Amino acid sequence: MKQNYLPRYTIGSDAFKAIGNVCGSYGKKLALLYGEKAYAASREKLLPALKDFEIVHEEVYGKEASYANIERIKNNEEVKKADFIIAVGGGKCLDVSKCVGDMLDKPVFTVASIASTCAAVTKISIIHNDDGSFKEIYRLKSAPVHCFIDPEVIVSAPAKYFWAGMGDTMAKHVECVFSAKNDVLDFESELGRTISILCYEPIIAKGYKAYEDVKKHTVSEEVEDVIKSIIIATGSVSLSVNPDYNSALAHALYYGLTVREWMERKHLHGEIVSYGTLIQLLVDNNEKELRRVYDFNKSVGLPVCLKDLDLEISDPLDDVLDATIINPELDHIPYPIDKKMVRSAIEKLEDYK
Ligand SMILES: [Zn+2]
Predict the structure, then answer these.
(1) Can you give the CATH number for the domain in which 125 is found?
(2) pTM for the full model?
(3) Rounded to the nearest whole angstrom, what is the distance from the C-alpha of residue 114 to the centroid of ligand 1?
(4) The pLDDT value given to residue 204
(5) Which of 38, 49, 183, 239 could anchor a disulfide with 19, C-beta 3.0 to 4.6 Å?
(6) How far, in Å, is the centroid of ligand 1 from the Cα of 306?
(7) Within this chain, do residues 112 and 171 fall inside the same structural domain, yes or no?
(8) DSSP string, 161-181
(9) Residue 184 burial (CB < 10 Å; 0-12/13-18/19+)?
(10) Does the pLDDT at position 273 exceed 90?
C-alpha cells in the first residue's frame, strides 16, 4: 500500500476567511494553540474568521516542542472536548500541536506565522528535550488537514527567519537530487524529486527581491512565491520522497557544525545548512549550480565562507568533520564521502569568488 499526503493550503491576505468553509465540516468546537508572537500578529484577522466556532480552549503551547508540553495540553479536559485543533505559530508550536492532535485523534489545521520550515504541512513532529536539545522525530498518522497562510502575518515576523528559510529550502532540491542520483525512483519519490525544483528555481529567481520586501514588511508576488517554496514545495517533497532522499551532505555538515555548541546560538538552521549546500556542490564538482547558489548566497548575505559562520580556516575542524561523516544523512548517497573530501571542499570554497 502506498499513501501520500500532498499539502492543502490557502494563501493570501484574505486566507483566514476560508477557515469557516474548510474547517466547518469538522465540527464547531475548536482548541486554539499558539505561540505568543504568532497570535499577536494574526489575532486581529484570525478571530473574526473564527466567529462561527466555539473556542473551547486556548493556550500558549509553551516554549519548547517537548513531550512535557504535549502531555500537558493533551491531558487538558477542554482540549479533549474539541472537534479539531487550530495551531498558530512557527515550527515548534506546530510540532507540539500536530503531536497533540495525533495522540487525541483530532484533525489539526495550521496557520503558519513564519516561513522558515515546512512544519505547517508535514507528517512529522520534531521533538526536543526541555533544555532545547534534539530528542527525536515523532511520526504522525496523518498530515495537517489544511494550512492557512496570510503573507501579511509572515512579513510581520523578523526577516531573518525568511532569509534562513530560503537557505534550508534550496538545500532540499540540491540534496534530494544528489542522494537520488543513481537510483530508479518509485512514483512518489519521483513526484517529490520533480517538485523539488520549486524549492530552488523560484528562490534563485525571486529570493533577493522577496527578502528585500520582507525586510520592509511588505507583501509582493515574489514574497508569496518564496513562501510557497519554503512551506508548500518543501513540504510536498518531504511528504512524497523515500526518507533516503530528504537530505544529504548539506544537512550532515549542519549536524557536524552544531557539535560546536555556540553555533546554533549565533546562527539559524537554514543559514548553516546553506553553507553545507555549497560544500556539497563542491564535493560533487557541480560547478554550474555552485556558481548560482554562491552568487545567490552572496547577494542576500547567506554564508559563503567559514568566517560567515565565525570559523577560521586555521581551525582543523576535526570534531566537525568526524560528526559529519558519521551522520545518517550520508547513509544513502551516490558515492562515499570522506573527511578529506569535505575538508578539501571547505578549503576550495575559501578561495572561490
Ligand atoms: Zn533543514
Answers:
(1) 3.40.50.1970
(2) 0.96
(3) 15
(4) 98
(5) 49
(6) 19
(7) no
(8) HHHHHHHHHHHHHHHHHHHTT
(9) exposed
(10) yes
